[in-house]
Protein backbone atom coordinates (compact mmCIF):
# COMPACT_ATOMS: atom_id res chain seq x y z
CA UNK A 1 0.00 0.00 0.00
CA UNK A 2 2.79 2.48 0.88
CA UNK A 3 4.33 2.33 -2.58
CA UNK A 4 0.92 2.80 -4.24
CA UNK A 5 0.27 5.87 -2.08
CA UNK A 6 3.68 7.35 -2.88
CA UNK A 7 3.05 6.80 -6.58
CA UNK A 8 -0.25 8.68 -6.37
CA UNK A 9 1.44 11.58 -4.57
CA UNK A 10 4.20 11.76 -7.16
CA UNK A 11 1.63 11.69 -9.95
CA UNK A 12 -0.38 14.43 -8.25
CA UNK A 13 2.65 16.70 -8.03
CA UNK A 14 3.64 15.92 -11.62
CA UNK A 15 0.19 16.80 -12.93
CA UNK A 16 0.16 20.06 -10.97
CA UNK A 17 3.51 21.05 -12.49
CA UNK A 18 2.20 20.06 -15.92
CA UNK A 19 -0.75 22.44 -15.47
CA UNK A 20 1.57 25.28 -14.52
CA UNK A 21 3.80 24.44 -17.49
CA UNK A 22 0.78 24.64 -19.83
CA UNK A 23 0.17 28.24 -18.71
CA UNK A 24 3.85 29.04 -19.32
CA UNK A 25 3.81 27.45 -22.77
CA UNK A 26 0.70 29.45 -23.69
CA UNK A 27 2.45 32.66 -22.64
CA UNK A 28 5.58 31.65 -24.54
CA UNK A 29 3.57 30.96 -27.70
CA UNK A 30 1.90 34.37 -27.48
CA UNK A 31 -1.46 32.83 -26.64
CA UNK A 32 -3.92 34.10 -24.06
CA UNK A 33 -3.64 31.67 -21.10
CA UNK A 34 -6.64 29.42 -20.71
CA UNK A 35 -7.89 26.22 -19.12
CA UNK A 36 -10.52 23.94 -20.71
CA UNK A 37 -13.06 22.17 -18.50
CA UNK A 38 -16.24 20.14 -18.96
CA UNK A 39 -19.26 22.41 -18.73
CA UNK A 40 -20.39 21.90 -15.15
CA UNK A 41 -24.10 22.31 -15.60
CA UNK A 42 -26.92 19.84 -15.09
CA UNK A 43 -27.54 19.78 -18.84
CA UNK A 44 -24.01 18.42 -19.39
CA UNK A 45 -24.37 15.55 -16.90
CA UNK A 46 -25.22 12.23 -18.50
CA UNK A 47 -26.23 8.92 -17.01
CA UNK A 48 -23.90 6.22 -18.31
CA UNK A 49 -26.25 3.25 -18.58
CA UNK A 50 -23.39 0.79 -19.12
CA UNK A 51 -21.51 1.84 -15.97
CA UNK A 52 -24.68 2.94 -14.08
CA UNK A 53 -23.08 6.20 -12.94
CA UNK A 54 -23.28 9.95 -13.65
CA UNK A 55 -20.57 11.32 -15.97
CA UNK A 56 -19.83 14.60 -17.72
CA UNK A 57 -20.94 15.01 -21.31
CA UNK A 58 -18.89 16.29 -24.25
CA UNK A 59 -19.55 20.01 -23.84
CA UNK A 60 -16.66 22.09 -22.55
CA UNK A 61 -16.04 25.67 -21.48
CA UNK A 62 -12.85 27.69 -21.49
CA UNK A 63 -11.44 29.67 -18.56
CA UNK A 64 -9.50 32.38 -20.37
CA UNK A 65 -7.50 35.42 -19.32
CA UNK A 66 -9.11 37.47 -22.10
CA UNK A 67 -11.31 39.15 -19.46
CA UNK A 68 -10.55 40.57 -16.02
CA UNK A 69 -12.84 37.98 -14.42
CA UNK A 70 -11.21 35.12 -16.30
CA UNK A 71 -7.71 36.40 -15.55
CA UNK A 72 -8.52 36.46 -11.82
CA UNK A 73 -9.69 32.84 -11.96
CA UNK A 74 -6.48 31.72 -13.64
CA UNK A 75 -4.39 33.75 -11.19
CA UNK A 76 -6.11 32.01 -8.29
CA UNK A 77 -5.54 28.66 -10.01
CA UNK A 78 -1.82 29.40 -10.40
CA UNK A 79 -1.42 30.37 -6.74
CA UNK A 80 -3.36 27.28 -5.65
CA UNK A 81 -1.24 25.01 -7.84
CA UNK A 82 1.92 26.45 -6.29
CA UNK A 83 0.52 25.97 -2.78
CA UNK A 84 -0.55 22.36 -3.45
CA UNK A 85 2.81 21.42 -5.01
CA UNK A 86 4.66 22.88 -2.00
CA UNK A 87 2.29 21.06 0.36
CA UNK A 88 3.16 17.76 -1.33
CA UNK A 89 6.89 18.55 -1.21
CA UNK A 90 6.61 19.11 2.54
CA UNK A 91 4.33 16.08 3.07
CA UNK A 92 1.74 18.30 4.74
CA UNK A 93 -2.03 18.44 4.36
CA UNK A 94 -4.75 21.03 4.79
CA UNK A 95 -8.52 21.26 4.78
CA UNK A 96 -10.74 22.87 2.21
CA UNK A 97 -11.65 25.46 4.84
CA UNK A 98 -7.99 26.20 5.57
CA UNK A 99 -7.26 26.80 1.88
CA UNK A 100 -9.78 29.64 1.88
CA UNK A 101 -8.00 31.31 4.80
CA UNK A 102 -4.52 30.49 3.48
CA UNK A 103 -5.26 32.54 0.36
CA UNK A 104 -5.53 35.61 2.60
CA UNK A 105 -1.75 35.38 3.13
CA UNK A 106 -0.91 35.36 -0.59
CA UNK A 107 1.01 38.46 -1.71
CA UNK A 108 -1.43 39.35 -4.50
CA UNK A 109 -4.84 40.44 -3.23
CA UNK A 110 -6.40 39.51 -6.58
CA UNK A 111 -5.56 35.86 -5.77
CA UNK A 112 -7.55 35.86 -2.52
CA UNK A 113 -10.77 33.82 -2.55
CA UNK A 114 -13.97 35.74 -1.92
CA UNK A 115 -15.54 32.80 -0.04
CA UNK A 116 -15.02 29.10 0.58
CA UNK A 117 -17.41 28.10 -2.18
CA UNK A 118 -15.02 29.69 -4.67
CA UNK A 119 -11.99 27.81 -3.34
CA UNK A 120 -13.94 24.54 -3.20
CA UNK A 121 -14.94 24.88 -6.84
CA UNK A 122 -11.36 25.62 -7.87
CA UNK A 123 -10.16 22.43 -6.19
CA UNK A 124 -12.86 20.54 -8.11
CA UNK A 125 -11.65 22.22 -11.33
CA UNK A 126 -8.08 21.12 -10.64
CA UNK A 127 -9.28 17.56 -9.98
CA UNK A 128 -11.01 17.50 -13.34
CA UNK A 129 -8.24 18.96 -15.49
CA UNK A 130 -5.46 17.04 -13.74
CA UNK A 131 -7.42 13.78 -13.44
CA UNK A 132 -6.09 13.55 -9.88
CA UNK A 133 -8.27 13.29 -6.76
CA UNK A 134 -8.06 16.06 -4.19
CA UNK A 135 -7.10 13.47 -1.57
CA UNK A 136 -3.87 12.94 -3.53
CA UNK A 137 -3.26 16.70 -3.33
CA UNK A 138 -3.47 16.18 0.47
CA UNK A 139 -6.62 18.27 0.60
CA UNK A 140 -9.03 17.17 3.32
CA UNK A 141 -12.70 18.02 3.88
CA UNK A 142 -13.85 19.03 7.32
CA UNK A 143 -14.44 16.00 9.53
CA UNK A 144 -17.32 13.84 8.30
CA UNK A 145 -17.45 11.64 11.41
CA UNK A 146 -18.56 8.56 9.43
CA UNK A 147 -17.60 5.27 11.09
CA UNK A 148 -17.39 1.51 10.58
CA UNK A 149 -18.29 -1.29 12.96
CA UNK A 150 -17.87 -4.94 12.08
CA UNK A 151 -15.58 -7.98 11.67
CA UNK A 152 -12.87 -6.29 9.61
CA UNK A 153 -9.13 -5.99 10.35
CA UNK A 154 -7.25 -3.25 8.54
CA UNK A 155 -3.86 -1.62 8.33
CA UNK A 156 -4.00 2.19 8.18
CA UNK A 157 -1.18 4.48 7.14
CA UNK A 158 -0.82 7.46 9.45
CA UNK A 159 1.78 10.20 9.87
CA UNK A 160 2.88 8.33 12.99
CA UNK A 161 3.39 5.06 11.17
CA UNK A 162 1.19 2.13 10.15
CA UNK A 163 -1.21 0.64 12.66
CA UNK A 164 -3.42 -2.44 12.59
CA UNK A 165 -7.00 -2.10 13.81
CA UNK A 166 -9.87 -4.54 14.18
CA UNK A 167 -13.11 -2.64 13.59
CA UNK A 168 -14.86 -4.46 16.45
CA UNK A 169 -12.23 -5.63 18.90
CA UNK A 170 -10.02 -2.52 18.89
CA UNK A 171 -12.69 0.18 18.93
CA UNK A 172 -15.38 1.38 21.32
CA UNK A 173 -19.10 1.58 20.69
CA UNK A 174 -18.46 4.49 18.35
CA UNK A 175 -16.57 2.30 15.87
CA UNK A 176 -13.62 3.03 13.59
CA UNK A 177 -13.57 6.50 12.05
CA UNK A 178 -13.08 6.49 8.30
CA UNK A 179 -10.01 8.55 7.32
CA UNK A 180 -10.18 11.33 4.75
CA UNK A 181 -8.38 9.18 2.21
CA UNK A 182 -9.60 5.56 2.48
CA UNK A 183 -6.97 4.48 -0.03
CA UNK A 184 -4.49 4.61 2.87
CA UNK A 185 -6.29 1.55 4.29
CA UNK A 186 -5.28 -2.02 3.54
CA UNK A 187 -7.85 -4.75 4.17
CA UNK A 188 -6.06 -7.54 6.07
CA UNK A 189 -8.78 -10.04 6.99
CA UNK A 190 -12.52 -10.14 7.57
CA UNK A 191 -15.54 -12.26 8.41
CA UNK A 192 -18.02 -9.91 6.69
CA UNK A 193 -21.00 -11.35 4.83
CA UNK A 194 -22.39 -7.98 3.68
CA UNK A 195 -22.00 -4.22 4.13
CA UNK A 196 -24.90 -2.33 5.69
CA UNK A 197 -24.84 1.43 5.00
CA UNK A 198 -27.08 3.27 7.46
CA UNK A 199 -28.28 6.86 7.04
CA UNK A 200 -28.80 8.00 10.62
CA UNK A 201 -26.60 7.88 13.70
CA UNK A 202 -29.53 6.79 15.85
CA UNK A 203 -30.21 3.70 13.73
CA UNK A 204 -26.51 2.91 13.47
CA UNK A 205 -26.30 2.96 17.28
CA UNK A 206 -29.40 0.75 17.52
CA UNK A 207 -27.86 -1.90 15.23
CA UNK A 208 -24.59 -1.89 17.16
CA UNK A 209 -26.27 -1.96 20.58
CA UNK A 210 -28.41 -4.90 19.47
CA UNK A 211 -25.34 -6.77 18.19
CA UNK A 212 -26.49 -6.81 14.56
CA UNK A 213 -22.89 -6.70 13.31
CA UNK A 214 -22.05 -9.81 15.40
CA UNK A 215 -25.21 -11.77 14.70
CA UNK A 216 -25.10 -11.32 10.92
CA UNK A 217 -21.38 -10.75 10.24
CA UNK A 218 -22.30 -7.30 8.94
CA UNK A 219 -20.03 -4.32 8.54
CA UNK A 220 -22.17 -1.35 9.58
CA UNK A 221 -21.20 1.87 7.79
CA UNK A 222 -22.66 5.10 9.16
CA UNK A 223 -23.44 7.39 6.22
CA UNK A 224 -24.14 10.44 8.37
CA UNK A 225 -26.83 11.77 6.05
CA UNK A 226 -25.59 12.61 2.54
CA UNK A 227 -22.39 10.53 2.57
CA UNK A 228 -18.97 12.11 2.28
CA UNK A 229 -16.60 11.08 -0.49
CA UNK A 230 -14.49 9.05 1.93
CA UNK A 231 -17.56 7.05 2.99
CA UNK A 232 -18.59 6.32 -0.59
CA UNK A 233 -15.01 5.42 -1.54
CA UNK A 234 -14.50 2.88 1.23
CA UNK A 235 -17.91 1.36 0.48
CA UNK A 236 -16.92 0.90 -3.15
CA UNK A 237 -13.57 -0.62 -2.15
CA UNK A 238 -15.27 -3.07 0.20
CA UNK A 239 -17.56 -4.16 -2.62
CA UNK A 240 -14.96 -4.31 -5.40
CA UNK A 241 -11.96 -5.68 -3.52
CA UNK A 242 -13.66 -8.02 -1.04
CA UNK A 243 -16.59 -8.96 -3.29
CA UNK A 244 -19.13 -7.98 -0.62
CA UNK A 245 -22.81 -7.19 -1.18
CA UNK A 246 -23.75 -3.62 -0.21
CA UNK A 247 -27.18 -2.63 1.08
CA UNK A 248 -28.36 0.87 1.99
CA UNK A 249 -30.80 1.52 4.85
CA UNK A 250 -32.34 5.00 4.95
CA UNK A 251 -35.44 6.90 5.98
CA UNK A 252 -38.48 6.53 3.77
CA UNK A 253 -38.55 9.88 1.97
CA UNK A 254 -37.36 11.22 -1.42
CA UNK A 255 -34.26 12.88 0.00
CA UNK A 256 -33.14 9.62 1.57
CA UNK A 257 -33.70 7.78 -1.71
CA UNK A 258 -31.21 10.25 -3.19
CA UNK A 259 -28.74 9.28 -0.47
CA UNK A 260 -29.06 5.73 -1.76
CA UNK A 261 -28.66 7.06 -5.30
CA UNK A 262 -25.39 8.82 -4.44
CA UNK A 263 -23.97 5.61 -2.95
CA UNK A 264 -25.09 3.46 -5.86
CA UNK A 265 -24.83 5.71 -8.89
CA UNK A 266 -22.89 8.81 -7.90
CA UNK A 267 -23.97 12.42 -7.70
CA UNK A 268 -24.08 15.27 -10.17
CA UNK A 269 -21.62 17.28 -8.08
CA UNK A 270 -18.94 14.57 -8.26
CA UNK A 271 -19.67 13.25 -11.75
CA UNK A 272 -15.96 13.36 -12.61
CA UNK A 273 -15.32 10.77 -9.86
CA UNK A 274 -18.30 8.44 -10.29
CA UNK A 275 -16.19 5.43 -11.28
CA UNK A 276 -14.07 6.02 -8.16
CA UNK A 277 -16.94 6.59 -5.72
CA UNK A 278 -20.10 4.84 -6.92
CA UNK A 279 -21.20 1.26 -6.19
CA UNK A 280 -23.82 0.45 -8.85
CA UNK A 281 -24.53 -3.01 -7.37
CA UNK A 282 -25.69 -1.50 -4.05
CA UNK A 283 -29.26 -2.44 -3.10
CA UNK A 284 -31.91 -0.44 -1.24
CA UNK A 285 -33.21 -2.25 1.85
CA UNK A 286 -35.66 0.40 3.16
CA UNK A 287 -37.56 2.14 4.61
CA UNK A 288 -39.88 1.41 1.67
CA UNK A 289 -43.27 3.05 1.17
CA UNK A 290 -44.63 -0.51 1.24
CA UNK A 291 -43.20 -0.87 4.77
CA UNK A 292 -45.21 2.16 5.89
CA UNK A 293 -48.36 0.33 4.82
CA UNK A 294 -47.40 -3.19 5.93
CA UNK A 295 -46.15 -2.21 9.39
CA UNK A 296 -48.52 0.73 9.93
CA UNK A 297 -45.53 2.92 10.83
CA UNK A 298 -45.84 6.36 12.44
CA UNK A 299 -45.56 8.90 9.64
CA UNK A 300 -45.45 12.53 8.65
CA UNK A 301 -47.43 13.91 5.71
CA UNK A 302 -45.56 14.60 2.49
CA UNK A 303 -44.76 18.30 2.06
CA UNK A 304 -45.11 19.95 -1.34
CA UNK A 305 -41.31 19.77 -1.72
CA UNK A 306 -41.45 16.01 -1.03
CA UNK A 307 -44.11 15.53 -3.67
CA UNK A 308 -42.13 17.51 -6.23
CA UNK A 309 -39.00 15.53 -5.42
CA UNK A 310 -40.80 12.19 -5.79
CA UNK A 311 -42.30 13.24 -9.12
CA UNK A 312 -38.82 14.27 -10.26
CA UNK A 313 -37.44 10.89 -9.23
CA UNK A 314 -39.97 9.16 -11.47
CA UNK A 315 -38.04 10.76 -14.35
CA UNK A 316 -34.59 10.18 -12.83
CA UNK A 317 -32.54 7.43 -14.57
CA UNK A 318 -31.29 6.27 -11.17
CA UNK A 319 -34.83 5.35 -10.18
CA UNK A 320 -36.08 3.81 -13.38
CA UNK A 321 -37.51 0.30 -13.27
CA UNK A 322 -40.60 -1.38 -11.93
CA UNK A 323 -39.49 -1.47 -8.28
CA UNK A 324 -38.91 2.26 -7.85
CA UNK A 325 -41.88 3.24 -10.00
CA UNK A 326 -44.16 1.10 -7.87
CA UNK A 327 -42.77 2.35 -4.56
CA UNK A 328 -42.74 6.05 -5.50
CA UNK A 329 -46.26 5.92 -6.92
CA UNK A 330 -47.42 4.18 -3.72
CA UNK A 331 -45.84 6.90 -1.61
CA UNK A 332 -47.51 9.63 -3.65
CA UNK A 333 -50.80 7.77 -3.25
CA UNK A 334 -50.61 7.40 0.56
CA UNK A 335 -49.06 10.88 0.98
CA UNK A 336 -46.81 9.80 3.85
CA UNK A 337 -43.14 9.43 4.76
CA UNK A 338 -41.45 7.69 7.69
CA UNK A 339 -38.11 7.71 9.49
CA UNK A 340 -35.99 4.65 10.26
CA UNK A 341 -36.63 5.13 13.96
CA UNK A 342 -40.37 4.71 13.33
CA UNK A 343 -39.70 0.96 13.49
CA UNK A 344 -39.19 1.43 17.25
CA UNK A 345 -42.96 1.75 17.57
CA UNK A 346 -42.92 -2.06 17.43
CA UNK A 347 -40.15 -2.38 20.01
CA UNK A 348 -36.45 -1.58 20.20
CA UNK A 349 -35.47 -5.02 18.90
CA UNK A 350 -37.94 -5.12 16.01
CA UNK A 351 -35.52 -3.67 13.45
CA UNK A 352 -32.82 -6.29 14.15
CA UNK A 353 -35.04 -9.25 15.05
CA UNK A 354 -37.73 -8.89 12.42
CA UNK A 355 -37.51 -6.07 9.88
CA UNK A 356 -33.95 -6.35 8.58
CA UNK A 357 -33.73 -10.19 8.66
CA UNK A 358 -36.98 -10.39 6.69
CA UNK A 359 -35.95 -7.82 4.11
CA UNK A 360 -32.41 -9.17 3.73
CA UNK A 361 -33.74 -12.69 3.27
CA UNK A 362 -36.16 -11.47 0.59
CA UNK A 363 -33.23 -9.79 -1.16
CA UNK A 364 -31.06 -12.91 -1.01
CA UNK A 365 -28.44 -11.22 1.17
CA UNK A 366 -28.76 -13.62 4.11
From TrEMBL:
<keyword id="KW-0067">ATP-binding</keyword>
<keyword id="KW-0413">Isomerase</keyword>
<dbReference type="GO" id="GO:0003677">
    <property type="term" value="F:DNA binding"/>
</dbReference>
<dbReference type="GO" id="GO:0006260">
    <property type="term" value="P:DNA replication"/>
</dbReference>
<dbReference type="InterPro" id="IPR036078">
    <property type="entry name" value="Spo11/TopoVI_A_sf"/>
</dbReference>
<comment type="function">
    <text>Relaxes both positive and negative superturns and exhibits a strong decatenase activity.</text>
</comment>
<dbReference type="GO" id="GO:0006265">
    <property type="term" value="P:DNA topological change"/>
</dbReference>
<comment type="similarity">
    <text>Belongs to the TOP6A family.</text>
</comment>
<dbReference type="InterPro" id="IPR036388">
    <property type="entry name" value="WH-like_DNA-bd_sf"/>
</dbReference>
<dbReference type="InterPro" id="IPR002815">
    <property type="entry name" value="Spo11/TopoVI_A"/>
</dbReference>
<keyword id="KW-0460">Magnesium</keyword>
<keyword id="KW-0799">Topoisomerase</keyword>
<dbReference type="Pfam" id="PF20768">
    <property type="entry name" value="Topo_VI_alpha"/>
</dbReference>
<feature type="binding site">
    <location>
        <position position="251"/>
    </location>
    <ligand>
        <name>Mg(2+)</name>
    </ligand>
</feature>
<protein>
    <recommendedName>
        <fullName>Type 2 DNA topoisomerase 6 subunit A</fullName>
        <ecNumber>5.6.2.2</ecNumber>
    </recommendedName>
</protein>
<dbReference type="Pfam" id="PF21180">
    <property type="entry name" value="TOP6A-Spo11_Toprim"/>
</dbReference>
<feature type="active site" description="O-(5'-phospho-DNA)-tyrosine intermediate">
    <location>
        <position position="101"/>
    </location>
</feature>
<feature type="domain" description="Spo11/DNA topoisomerase VI subunit A N-terminal">
    <location>
        <begin position="72"/>
        <end position="138"/>
    </location>
</feature>
<dbReference type="GO" id="GO:0005694">
    <property type="term" value="C:chromosome"/>
</dbReference>
<feature type="domain" description="Type II DNA topoisomerase VI subunit A all-beta">
    <location>
        <begin position="142"/>
        <end position="191"/>
    </location>
</feature>
<dbReference type="Pfam" id="PF04406">
    <property type="entry name" value="TP6A_N"/>
</dbReference>
<keyword id="KW-0547">Nucleotide-binding</keyword>
<dbReference type="GO" id="GO:0003918">
    <property type="term" value="F:DNA topoisomerase type II (double strand cut, ATP-hydrolyzing) activity"/>
</dbReference>
<feature type="binding site">
    <location>
        <position position="199"/>
    </location>
    <ligand>
        <name>Mg(2+)</name>
    </ligand>
</feature>
<keyword id="KW-0479">Metal-binding</keyword>
<dbReference type="InterPro" id="IPR004085">
    <property type="entry name" value="TopoVI_A"/>
</dbReference>
<comment type="subunit">
    <text>Homodimer. Heterotetramer of two Top6A and two Top6B chains.</text>
</comment>
<dbReference type="InterPro" id="IPR034136">
    <property type="entry name" value="TOPRIM_Topo6A/Spo11"/>
</dbReference>
<dbReference type="GO" id="GO:0005524">
    <property type="term" value="F:ATP binding"/>
</dbReference>
<feature type="domain" description="Topoisomerase 6 subunit A/Spo11 TOPRIM">
    <location>
        <begin position="194"/>
        <end position="360"/>
    </location>
</feature>
<dbReference type="InterPro" id="IPR013049">
    <property type="entry name" value="Spo11/TopoVI_A_N"/>
</dbReference>
<dbReference type="GO" id="GO:0000287">
    <property type="term" value="F:magnesium ion binding"/>
</dbReference>
<keyword id="KW-0238">DNA-binding</keyword>
<dbReference type="InterPro" id="IPR049333">
    <property type="entry name" value="Topo_VI_alpha"/>
</dbReference>
Amino acid sequence: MASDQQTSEERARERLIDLAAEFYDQFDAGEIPHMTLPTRTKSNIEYDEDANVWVYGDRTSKRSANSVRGARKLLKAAYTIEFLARQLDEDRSSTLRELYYISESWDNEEAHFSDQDESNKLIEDLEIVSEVKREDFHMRPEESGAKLMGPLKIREQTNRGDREIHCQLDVGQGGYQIPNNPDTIEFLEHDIDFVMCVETGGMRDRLVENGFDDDYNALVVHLGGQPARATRRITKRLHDELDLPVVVFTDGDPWSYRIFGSVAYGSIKSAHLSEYLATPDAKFVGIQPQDIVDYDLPTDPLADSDINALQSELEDPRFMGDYWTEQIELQLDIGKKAEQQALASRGLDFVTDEYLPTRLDEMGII
